[in-house]
Amino acid sequence: xxxxxxxxxxxxxxxxxxxxxxxxxxxxxxxxxxxxxxxxxxxxxxxxxxxxxxxxxxxxxxxxxxxxxxxxxxxxxxxxxxxxxxxxxxxxxxxxxxxxxxxxxxxxxxxxxxxxxxxxxxxx
Length: 124
Description:
With 124 residues, the chain is mainly alpha-helical. The protein is 37% helix and 9% strand. A hairpin with a 2-residue loop joins strand 2 and strand 3.
């Protein structure tokens, strides 16, 4: 049985040895690779539920309701136990103007709130 060796090294010596090993491994892979280097796929931008809600102009609860009804299931991805949404799939599910449930986005301003222009008070 081989026992591990203890070799006292300073930090610069350790860095130099690691750099040499990495260079050697890279050279070995470049000279012995079986074909062209693999191409990297573009990274998909993921949005949190809050960001997806902001994308559609709705609250987070609505996004989760759409997910429950299957309207956003193609866009949903679980990462580390948390749910995220692919931006490109959200764009195909609906636009900020046209929501996944088919309804058009309306203003969140409620009549009678805000500047009160054109709003008549109720007569009791």
